[in-house]
Amino acid sequence: MPHLDITTVLVISLCFIAHISYRYRRRRLLPPGPTRWPIVGNALKIPLQNQHKFYNELGKELNTKIMYLEVPGQSILVINDASIAQDLLDKRSTNYSDRPGIPMLADVVGHRTFFAFMPYGNEWRAHRRLFMQYFSEKSLPQMHEKFLEFLRKGLLCNFLEYPEDFMHHMRNWIGGLSTSMTYGLPVQRQHDPLIHFAERALGGSAAAASPGRFLVNVLPWLKYVPDWMPGAGFKRLGKQIMKELVQLREEPYQAALEMIDNGTAPPSFVSDTIEKMRDKPNFDPQDACLKQTAEQVFGAASDTTRSAVSTFLLAILMHSEVQKKVQQEVDSVVGPDRLPDFSDIPSLNYLAAVIKESLRWNPVLPTALPHLVTEDDEYMGYFIPKGTIVMPNTYAMLHDEQVFPDPETFDPERFIKDGVLRDDLQIDPENVATFGWGRRICPGSHIALANLSIAAASLLYLFDILPPLDGDGNSIAVVANLSSDNVGSEPENFECRIIPRKGKDVHGLLKDYMGTDPL
Ligand code: HEM
User: PROSITE patterns, per this entry (predicted)?
Assistant: First the structure.
């Protein structure tokens, strides 16, 4: 019999214990889910697009609001119910606030500096704290002036003069506002080159973060494939995406520093934060945390807000009766002689209902952002293993027939009764699900909602949003194509006519805001 030394005995014992504990964990009751096949688990069943709809249907099929699935090396918990998400992601947030690594973004592109994707811990905390210090809800009124300037000069004037490019104007408006809030850089009213570049660079990172766009996000071991191998194009693309992301992080930041040094910097996140940091020991204007947080603002604010505004536009384009009702309400509150401002918003109850309904109808991030479980947990008698990815299915929660009957129908009346916003609803999409959960909840929701409300009120005060016409002058029916690449859901390009409203002096109301000087 061979002689076993103490190390070998120890290793064998540890393996045995690990094996037993693994088998024990497997025997514990996992949440319901579709049959998992050996090796592939459920990988072949999960679609690459529109996962929110797939999980919603699967939940109905299995008669459950919480589901467990596996893909090779990864367990996934899908939550289709808001109160379950609150129990786990809000009430047990110490255990549910981590993020999974996204192989294409973190390992192939090598981009790990957006705090939205950082693991839960001190580095994430430091970034989020820096963000909150400047963009807090308390400082929102100080931002109103800038919001109005960008809306009126950057969006409304362009809608009046060049309505056919409305999608471009929305991109330039919200991208420009983000650039200005963050860096204080001047922004062109149309076709700003930095915004154009940022969209491309961030489009690359959004694609890398999407579970469905790159196979490596489903089969993480593909990241080890050498660059020269056939089929390794994704690795070369990763390098290109990273180059642009680094340029996006550095160039506007260095331009902002230059303005600070020249004494020409307007108030912005970067200039105000540097001012506060200046007196601290070890002050470094190249502080990585500041630079990275600045980069994150643009990345998080632009696509999301634009997507919410374009969903609103599409919804009122498809529902002319809703549009007329909003217009009557805004007219009655604002009167004929001025543009809407933030003091009007609390009086616009019907508009508030329409905004809630458009956030519900097409949630901007239909499966939010994934969370990760840090420690083994138990819920409703089910075992939830450490390392499980949690997908809160915002779409399923906001399309739950028990809470929102006939959920695919766009109907703002769900949220309002006799002209008063209902306070007896189980779910208000402005407060639940849309902006995520627990410690990771969106820290920019107040900025998004403020811009969405004032943009919606101003657009409908000035313009009719009408369907396109065919060659005979008849209206073409507009169909909602709400596409999701699994991160965001945005209406696909649609056509409409944006016409100044009859009986309104739209040119006169906007004349002080016209011009070509940068914002
Ligand atoms: C309609 C517009 C918006 C929607 C629907 C939205 C939604 C979300 C959601 C669902 C998350 C993930 C929350 C979670 O993990 O549970 C998130 C994270 C985040 N959002 Fe927003 N957001 C919007 C606009 C904004 C704006 C305007 C900003 C910045 C000014 C912003 C900054 C962020 C940041 C920094 C994070 C990462 C938070 C973290 O991981 O700690 N968002 N957002």
Answer: CYTOCHROME_P450
- Tens digits of residue pLDDT in 77-123: 999 999 999 999 999 999 999 999 989 988 998 888 899 999 999 99
In the reported structure, the alpha carbon of residue 487 is separated from the centroid of ligand 1 by a whole-number distance in angstroms of 12
Instruction: Determine the straight-line distance between the first and last CA of the chain, rounded to whole angstroms.
Output: 84
Q: How far is Cα 357 from Cα 143, in angstroms, rounded to an integer?
A: 26
By most ligand atoms within 8 Å of CB, the mutation choice from 442, 449, 486 for ligand 1 is 442
- Do 86 and 79 touch, CB atoms closer than 8 A? no
* Alpha carbon distance 492, 134 (integer Å): 34
Distance separating alpha carbons of residues 26 and 20, to the nearest angstrom: 10
The complex's ipTM?
A: 0.99
What is the identity of the amino acid at 70?
E
pLDDT in tens, 282-325: 888 888 999 999 999 988 999 999 999 999 999 999 999 999 99
15 is in an annotated binding site: no
Alpha-carbon gap, residue 239 to 133, rounded angstroms: 33
Q: What is the DSSP string of 23-58?
A: HHHHHS-PPP-SPPBTTTBTTTTS-SS-HHHHHHHH
Residue nearest to atom 43 of ligand 1 (CA): 442
Phi, psi of 203 (to 5 degrees): -60, -40
Q: Which of 122, 269, 304, 430 to mutate to test the pocket of ligand 1 (most atoms within 8 A of CB)?
A: 304
Buried b / exposed e over 98-115, threshold 16 CB at 10 Å, is bbbebbbbbbbbebbbbb
- Name the residue with the closest Cα to ligand 1, atom 18: 442
Ligand 1: lining residues by beta carbon, under 6 Å: 115-116, 128, 131, 135, 296-297, 300-301, 304-305, 308, 364-365, 368-369, 434-437, 440-444, 447-448
Question: Is the pTM here over 0.90, yes or no?
Answer: yes
Cα–Cα distance for residue pair 74/372, rounded to 1 Å: 11
